[in-house]
Request: fold
Amino acid sequence: MILSPLLIEDAVKAALKEDLGHGFDVTSQSLIPANASAKAVLRSREAGVLSGLIVALSAFSLTDVDFDMVIEAQDGDAIEAGQIIASIEGPARSLLMAERVALNFLGHMSGIASLTARYVELVKDTGAEICDTRKTLPGLRIFQKYAVYCGGGANHRFGLDDAILIKDNHIAAVGDIDQALDQAYMLAGHTKKIEIEVDTLEQLETVLANGKADIIMLDNFDIEALQKGVEMAQGAAILEASGGVTLDSVQKIAQTGVNYISIGALTHSAPNHDFGLDIDI
Reply:
């Protein structure tokens, strides 16, 4: 997965404009001469997985064209506490102007990647894949999903337009499961996957009998119900477990034989990864 430079530029420019308010950094302009230069190192303060470095560095390059940068790690790398990620040299005022925006993107994205990697490690060798959801911050979905990818996870749908996902409210609005699946199948075409959410084994039985779902989401099933669901499906559809998954429960869920485990917490509850930008005097 590659982030589009255009999307990076738009997001970083918006963040810089938000931070600059009326157009300048009043502290730096008050204290630092206009022609002063500075060199800084971008350092990780804890162990984790790196994500968002190019986004962070764009904050500096979009603030001033006169920066020299040396990149010392890549997105997806495991990083250690104290490790230098990049060195940046250029106008001191601009360096400080971009600092917080750069650290915000880098810390948030690396936090997601690091949390994802913990989940991925717990399910290795089970055959299950960890994936994200649409529970993302408005305007940041592409960056958050990219961070999941950096952590070794898989991306669920990016929006409402790239896959059909029939949830309980859709079923309630249409009338029943069969009608919802039949309508979706009639309109989807052969290139678009159909996924449906079920809450009970009885609903799963109905979906399997219908035969039109490519993927079935087993929502908030306990371990016993997941095991029974896998037995019932017998490989007829891809199975996705979802709902309340934690680091404590994910391994047992994976061992039931489901294909995917979707976790909203990867993006909406990941802790920030601590980075620092330290001026090298």
About this structure: The chain has a mean pLDDT of 95. The first strand starts at residue 37 and ends at 44.
